[in-house]
Design brief:
With 221 residues, this protein is α/β, with parallel strands linked by helices. The protein folds into 2 domains: 29 residues; 190 residues, Ricin (A subunit), domain 1, CATH 3.40.420. It is built from 7 helices and 8 strands, in the order αβαβββββββααααα. InterPro entries: Ribosome-inact_prot_sf (IPR036041), Ribosome_inactivat_prot (IPR001574), Ribosome_inactivat_prot_sub1 (IPR016138).
Length: 221
């Protein structure tokens, strides 16, 4: 066998083993396109986050999930704030802007709050599936003990929810209220620009923000 052919065969076998090793080592590793949102930067940062999220949805970004070889479209909204608030990741399905997971990575205890099943998780993270089957507004509002029109979407409320969703062991009522805040501020604001403008105007004014009964009707349709 010529030396060049032997070298080519050897390299091919080596690369095959290398690919197998990397796949086994990366099981469960997920890399979604990230969109950063610093709540403290006001309405400009908020509108920019929504614009980037809509752009990702329009271009139908394909993300390879290594552990099951499926191709799905998600975005990772990396939410930060002030006052030493933890960073929270909201995983958004780009086809309908639904949030399927909240997670806190890089804290002493990495953990995941799942709202939908079948979404690959980060490695070394504790999965919390208590909210599976409770992602609807009625179910979350019952756990939050709060109507949708009473959810404060102002900057201070959003920062409070960062702590509620980013610290392991927070009670379910506070977690549900935090989920409602970010679902409305991300999912519904991406779908309905009037809701986005309403929240952004509240950030400019430094005031509390509440959706109206009419807007809740749009959200439920």
């Amino acid at each position: 066998m010529p030396a060049s052919v032997l070298i080519a065969v050897t390299l091919s076998v080596f690369l095959g083993f290398l690919v197998m090793f990397l796949r086994s080592g990366d099981s469960g590793n997920v890399e979604f396109p990230q969109v950063r949102w610093d709540i403290n930067r006001g309405s400009g940062a908020y509108r920019e986050m929504l614009d980037r999220l809509r752009m990702l949805a329009d271009t139908e970004v394909n993300v390879v999930v290594t552990n099951n070889k499926e191709t799905r479209s998600f975005a990772d909204i990396v939410i930060g704030g002030g006052n030493h608030a933890p960073v929270v990741h909201a995983i958004v399905r780009l086809s309908d802007f639904s949030i399927v997971r909240f997670c806190s990575i890089g804290t002493p205890h990495n953990f995941v709050l799942n709202l939908a099943s079948g979404i690959p998780s980060e490695r070394d993270a504790t999965d919390d599936n208590w909210f599976l089957g409770k992602r609807g507004y009625d179910a979350l509002a019952r756990v939050a003990k709060q109507s949708l029109t009473a959810v404060d979407l102002g900057e201070s409320g959003l920062e409070e929810s960062l702590r509620d969703l980013g610290i392991l062991g927070t009670d379910r009522t506070a977690q549900a209220r935090g989920m409602l805040r970010f679902i409305i501020a991300i999912t519904e604001a991406s779908r309905f620009r009037p809701i986005a403008s309403h929240i952004a105007n509240g950030m400019d004014n430094g005031s509390s923000v509440f959706v109206t009964a009419q807007q809740v009707g749009l959200m439920r349709d």
